[in-house]
Amino acid sequence: MFESLSDRLGGVFDRLRGRGALSEADVRGAMREVRIALLEADVALPVARDFVEGITEKAIGQQVLRSVTPGQQVVKIVNDALVEMLGPDTAGLNIDVSPPAVIMMVGLQGSGKTTTTAKLAKMLAGKERKKVLMASLDVNRPNAQEQLAVLGTQAEVSTLPIVVGQQPVEIARRALQAAKLQGFDVVMLDTAGRLHVDQALMDEMKAVADIARPNEILLVVDSLTGQDAVNVAQNFSNQVPLTGVVLTRMDGDARGGAALSMRAVTGKPIKFAGTGEKLDAIEAFHPKRVAGRILGMGDVVSLVERAAEAIQVDDAEKMAQRLAKGQFDMNDLRAQLGQMRRMGGLGALAGMIPGMKKAQAAMANGAVDERLLLRMDAMIGSMTVKERAKPELLNAKRKIRVAKGSGMTVQDVNKLLKMHQEMAGAMKRIKKMGGIKGMAALLG
Ligand code: GDP
Fold first, then answer.
1. Mutate-to-test residue for ligand 1 from 104, 109, 115, 154, highest number of ligand atoms within 8 A of CB
2. What gap in Å lies between CA 397 and CA 400, rounded to an integer?
3. I need a labelling partner for 186 at 20 to 30 A (CA). Which of 61, 71, 193, 375 fits?
């Protein structure tokens, strides 16, 4: 999901990043590319247009933060706009009411409505320890009620006994009564789907909603259907008071635009994402995480978020001067590691230094954690002042001493030295390229 969009946007930002200054034309050019990328990902045209207009204005008007490059700032602006488009926060279910809470599931046939009903029921019964009753109101599709009963058995959730010949409104009424009498916390009503949106379906849903007074009306849409999903959502939201959307088949390789347009079109939050056929393949929808996945630049975003507060400007300036001379000893490396720790994995040199870039990618993946940084710090701590200033002094004997002193192995010491060497080499190259200006901009 989102892979091609992510790739496209990545390309746009790669061209922006690492540049000292951006002209208005640079920003406008990049934003045109963002717009094309969104449209290709199936984002609805008006949604893409509004999105790009908003970010262009911000990106051009924005004061560039100290410590980050303008390109990184633009990534952050796009990220924030994506989060806003997807919804500011994870939206939970409004079921903390006097029981029974009623959740009504609506959507087209084949959207995954029945499966999602069972998934949510299982989640509520399990994690939240709710007593849940499911009822199928689908009297059109043969076996729809039986299907829910089977899923109920799998999910270990009760289903309302089937009474042949009963109509949806009556079934809903019976479900509510049963829930009250038997002390259920939550009633889930799985309504009938249709192949297309039609008036009979809408009327039926309205009638059910009138008597069931649901706390939640969740629209289930298949994210693989792209623009159709958006149209379906618009139709439903015009006729029934939806409280949220569930996107199914997010495990598929759709272009993702449906997800991006959904909130803008319905004004309702995406609450859950279905990610497979199994009953536990459902996740709360986290706009921030999804935006991060799309941009694949969580590192840059948090860098910008934290830059202002976390970078100690004095240190950064001092380091910039040293780096400008092509100097980079163990003390500099240590300062960088400290900064990475303070910033949750991001030094001010983010992305510019080969060895560091890898370490950061690993940190972003959770493969390198704070402990590793602390261990590296401990190794540098075990070096003498002279060794720190001149790491080439570290011969085999000295390495053993450093390893012992820090509780690490000689191999670890070697790895640290190699990383330092790579970084020092990069510094020299930056100096050669006359990159003082770029470094200064990067470091504040
Ligand atoms: P309904 O007609 O809307 O009730 O749709 P169903 O719940 O019967 O689902 C139709 C098909 O989609 C079933 O085979 C489900 O297993 C499958 N399905 C539902 N949700 C997901 C999902 O999130 N991912 C995948 N891969 N399949 C899903």
1. 115
2. 5
3. 193
